[in-house]
Design brief:
heterodimer, A: about 325 residues, mainly alpha, ABC transporter involved in vitamin B12 uptake, BtuC, 14 helices, 2 strands, globular, B: about 260 residues, alpha/beta, Rossmann fold, 9 helices, about 30% strand
């Protein structure tokens, strides 16, 4: 029964993703606000260049970003047996932000350098939070992990603060500040091609291992008795997902709440089993982020930072889910 | 077939190096196709002993043999096809349906990137049937009662199709009706040729279901053997540190505490 409804949800979301991807190509503020008639693609040289060298790579990046953040959120929640974690709460996003800012300041602005630096610090953030939470001697697992993630994130945001303080206020500071607010305005094909392999490797790993994620959400001794190599499988999943998230964060800046809220909605739609909830979270996340980015770039004459939008929408949805008991936490 | 399913020889174990040894020079044999009860007070190393049998923990000294071979002689996959575990506090943090949870028992037979297929579904449904809980298949695990929950855990380990079942306190927290139901099901499984090792702190649970008894206290094996040699007032009184009577009523052995003790 549930299986069939899972399939239906999947088809609807798949079609929805394609429709939104195609429709968004014509959304924007050229030649006038909101809608560009498709025939302009044939008639107007500027429209063609705008669409194919700016809008398309940006849209595809938004899709990858949403898919990766949501799938990573779903994997982290299940692997850490904690429905309240997401990349932003686990030190990953802030760590990646620190790594990217460090790179913009001193290591060089080559996209690949920024990406690698972001990935390295994103991983340091994740494992820092994890090992800190193992050492805490009070509270349940849910609480300890959230507290550790908050502390590690705070440390990295302090680090970012220091970097902003020493940055050149005329050249580097605006760049870091706008980047931190989160947005996809600077995305080019070159950025897209650099993150694509990391994102695909992460998404593919999470997709292929999705049923194992169920197994890893059980207690260690149960998962072990069922033949899982718990530590090794967790490491593979965490490494793949965090690398993908950090790579995308290096071009998007901090995009919060997507990774927390989307997996909850996915589980609500098709049930808790990661077999269906992870693919559904990927599609939902892609749709959510593409739509948010459409609003970010079309609504006002000036661009609204995407990170601000996703936080606002995500936090409101979170409040709604909390009140309507869509989120249950046993601490 | 080897009549010993599991054998431990001079096993000692400590959770930390130089820490207190939870088990000291433990030697025991678990006979195949019978129910063995590991009986002892709380906190005496029963769970540790189960985890050593499972291979989750490695003995500091001594050795554990499964059908005559070390854990190292089996791959993780082979081991999980031979031996299953229901821990005392199974936690299922996400709200799977009963069937989705039971399907996890099929993982020893799946490849790393594989999801369960038709045959796995069929075996899981058989496991539900043999536990008498077919009606629960689509129910979310969060809505189960304590007794239903334990039946579901057992169905999960049955779907694993193992020769050995390790059950940690399978009847703790259950009322008498559910205790009875679970123990009768276990007796039935042993008759079908499955080796069962269960831990319990309750002598009457052990007596009801088991043929072989191991008394554990303070990390040592006190006594090991069948009902008449192990379940005596002297043995139990020494172990639990309270005066205990063993009574015989209508051919059933029962353990009672001495109120005047």
């Amino acid at each position: 029964m549930r299986k069939r409804s899972g399939k239906q949800v999947f088809i609807i979301l798949g079609v929805g993703t394609l429709v939104i991807l195609l429709g968004s190509v014509f959304l924007g503020r050229y030649p006038r606000p909101y809608w560009m008639p498709p025939r302009l693609l044939l008639e107007d040289e500027l429209a063609r260049r705008l669409v194919f060298s700016l809008r398309v790579p940006r849209l595809l990046t938004a899709l990858l970003l949403g898919m990766t953040l949501s799938a990573t959120g779903a994997v982290l929640q299940m692997v850490f047996r904690n429905p309240l974690v997401e990349p932003g709460f686990m030190g990953v996003t802030q760590g990646a932000a620190f790594g990217a800012a460090l790179s913009i300041l001193w290591l060089g602005k080559h996209p690949l350098v920024i990406e690698l630096s972001a990935t390295l610090f994103g991983l340091i953030g994740l494992f820092g939070s994890y090992f800190l939470s193992r050492r805490l001697r009070f509270g349940g697992w849910v609480l300890r992990l959230v507290l550790s993630g908050v502390a590690v994130s705070a440390l990295f945001s302090a680090g970012v603060g220091i970097l902003k303080y020493v940055a050149d206020p005329l050249t580097q500071l605006p760049e870091i500040t706008f980047w931190l607010l989160g947005g996809l305005w600077g995305v080019t094909w070159r950025n897209f091609w650099y993150v694509l392999p990391f994102a695909l490797a992460g998404l593919l790993t999470m997709f292929l291992m999705r049923w194992r994620v169920n197994l890893l959400s059980l207690k260690d001794e149960t998962a072990f008795s069922l033949g899982a190599s718990t530590n090794r499988e967790r490491m593979v999943l965490l490494f793949a997902s965090v690398t993908a998230t950090a790579a995308l964060t290096s071009i998007s800046g901090i995009i919060g709440w997507v990774g927390l809220i989307v997996p909850h909605i996915a589980r609500r739609l098709v049930g808790a089993s990661a077999d269906t909830s992870i693919p559904v979270a990927m599609l939902l996340g892609g749709i959510f982020t593409m739509l948010s980015d459409d609003i970010a770039r079309s609504l006002l004459a000036g661009e609204i930072p995407l990170g601000i939008l996703t936080s606002a929408i995500g936090a409101l949805l979170f409040m709604y889910l909390m009140i309507s008991m869509g989120i249950k936490v046993r601490a | 077939m080897d009549h010993k399913a599991i054998a431990a020889k001079d096993v000692s174990f400590a959770y930390h190096q130089d820490g207190i040894r939870v088990l000291r020079d433990v030697s025991l044999d678990i006979p195949a196709q019978k129910i063995t009860a590991i009986l002892g007070p709380n906190g005496t190393g029963k769970t540790t002993l189960l985890h050593l049998m499972l291979g989750l923990l490695k003995p500091g000294s001594g050795e554990v043999l499964i059908f005559g071979k070390h854990h190292g002689a089996y791959s993780r996959r082979e081991m999980s096809q031979i031996m299953g575990l229901v821990p005392q506090f199974e936690s299922i943090p996400f709200n799977f349906t009963v069937l989705e949870y039971i399907l996890l028992g099929r993982s020893p037979y799946l490849k790393p990137f594989q999801s369960p297929g038709k045959e796995d579904l069929q075996i899981s449904e058989e496991a539900l049937t043999s536990m008498g809980i077919v009606g629960l298949a689509g129910k979310p695990v969060s809505e189960l009662s304590g007794g239903e929950r334990q039946l579901v855990h057992l169905a999960r380990v049955l779907a694993q199709r193992t020769k050995i079942l390790l059950l940690d306190e399978p009847t703790a927290h259950l009322d008498l009706e559910n205790q009875n139901r679970i123990l009768n099901l276990l007796v039935g499984l042993a008759e079908q040729g499955i080796t069962i090792v269960l831990t319990t702190h309750d002598p009457n649970v052990a007596i009801y279901a088991a043929e072989n008894f191991v008394l554990v206290n303070e990390g040592r094996i006190f006594f090991e053997g069948d009902l008449d040699t192990v379940i005596t007032p002297e043995n139990l009184s020494t172990m639990y540190n309270v005066p205990i009577h063993v009574e015989n009523a209508d051919g059933h052995t029962m353990v009672v505490m001495d109120k005047n003790g």
